[in-house]
């Protein structure tokens, strides 16, 4: 038998590990080994899931119906509740048949692109991007096309930039507001301009709205198909319970879109995973039919931490951090620190600088290379206030030695 063939398929071998999860895993491993590491890696609220949601799951465990297979596309009552919640929270009126319940937001991302893309189709990806987006696009046979925005524009791309990236092969625009990793929030006029541009050129839009309830100050969330309703028939909306209800481990997301695309994605899911765990779906049902008091409490804490982390980062010589308006991430530029000597090392990239900070200050950060823009860090401020202050203080003390 020939031994020349690769053991792992080229398609799968080309996928990069999730950098955010890798950093989080390393930080947790070091903690377990007794090191006082503070991790800013994972986008995970430090709050427990609200008790009423947990109790709904406990009750569901005792329901024999939930011990069996249920429809691959989601419990009918949950799909109906998601449709109602979507209209309640964003003003977007959809039918339950347009909803596909997925195993977390990541499965919704992959299935959206898998349902839309043929090999060679291009997807315009505003950059910095969440690490999973380009990998899902490539896995579906598509080609991600980066459109980079930096700190001078608050990490928001313009229609002119998008148009410059459009080709005859462009099929999809990815649009994310509030943004992971930057916390950028587009205002209504910007969303309308981008949506009308996409509609004019017959593009599909995949819009991730998972941070819809985490906006601060004067910023407001607006759903693209509500602002530009003529685009609704070519829009897929992604969302989930992870961030709003502190349910990252429950693994419930969803995809909303035109019936034909949702049915195609549901067919894929029927072969890939079948139904989402029924106990998790019961918990999600309690979440989306309940009020938003839990997220209101979290948002107050995140807002406080947001202001603290931005102030502390901008006090560090060589660090520039725009104020994020949404989600729970700060995305500072550290380009001015690269190439400077710190404790006998001279990091030339943000990857090297992050490694130095982990070694010397025992603080775990995700470098900008993971998000398509070297020279930056992403710091999640979804951790306790004391850890946040201590972690950034350690970083500030170390970087003050840069020469």
From TrEMBL:
It is an enzyme of class 2 (transferase). One of its GO terms (biological process) is amino acid metabolic process. InterPro entries: Aminotransferase_I/II_large (IPR004839), AspAT/PAT-like (IPR050596), NHTrfase_class1_PyrdxlP-BS (IPR004838), PyrdxlP-dep_Trfase (IPR015424), PyrdxlP-dep_Trfase_major (IPR015421), PyrdxlP-dep_Trfase_small (IPR015422). One of its GO terms (molecular function) is transaminase activity. Its cofactor is pyridoxal 5'-phosphate. Its EC number is 2.6.1.-. It holds the Pfam family Aminotran_1_2. Keywords: Aminotransferase, Pyridoxal phosphate, Transferase. The keyword Acetylation does not apply. Transmembrane segments: none annotated. Gene3D superfamilies: Aspartate Aminotransferase, domain 1 (3.90.1150.10), Type I PLP-dependent aspartate aminotransferase-like (Major domain) (3.40.640.10). Residues 36-390 form the Aminotransferase class I/classII large domain. Belongs to the class-I pyridoxal-phosphate-dependent aminotransferase family. This is Aminotransferase. The lineage of its organism: Bacteria, Bacillati, Actinomycetota, Actinomycetes, Streptosporangiales.
